[in-house]
Amino acid sequence: MNDTEMWRGISYVVITIFLVIFLYGYIISMYRKQKNGSRDYEKYADLALKDRLDDQVIEERIK
Fold first, then answer.
1. Mean pLDDT score of the chain, rounded to an integer?
2. How many domains, the chain?
3. Do the Cβ atoms of 41 and 30 come closer than 8 Å?
4. CA–CA dist 17, 24 (Å, integer)
5. TM spans, by residue (predicted)?
6. What is the pLDDT of residue 63?
7. How far apart are CA 28 and CA 37, in angstroms?
8. Which domain holds residue 31?
9. How far apart are CA 28 and CA 22, in angstroms?
10. Does residue 54 fall inside a structural domain?
């Protein structure tokens, strides 16, 4: 096994582990926000169905 192949394998494993940890952290963050009420993701699920210009706005922009 070449030195290059070894580093490719190690970097692949490290990047995969990092991305899995990032994904689970994001999922847990979304779950906590939904649970404490600061964000309602079910409103965003309806966005695919209610996307006309004259439909009700999901949330107002903060300027």
1. 88
2. 1
3. yes
4. 11
5. 6-27
6. 78
7. 14
8. 3-49
9. 10
10. no
23 part of a folded domain? yes
- So what's the pLDDT on residue 23? 98
Cα distance between residue 50 and residue 46, in whole Å? 6
Q: In angstroms, rounded to a whole number, what is the distance separating the alpha carbons of residues 63 and 22?
A: 30
Q: Which residue has the tokens 């899995």?
A: 20
Task: Determine the pLDDT at residue 10.
Answer: 97
Report if residue 38 sits inside a domain. yes
- The type of residue at 27 is I
On the question of pLDDT at 20 being above 80, the answer is yes
Whether 40 shows a pLDDT value over 90: the answer reads: no
Quick check: is 58 in a domain?
no
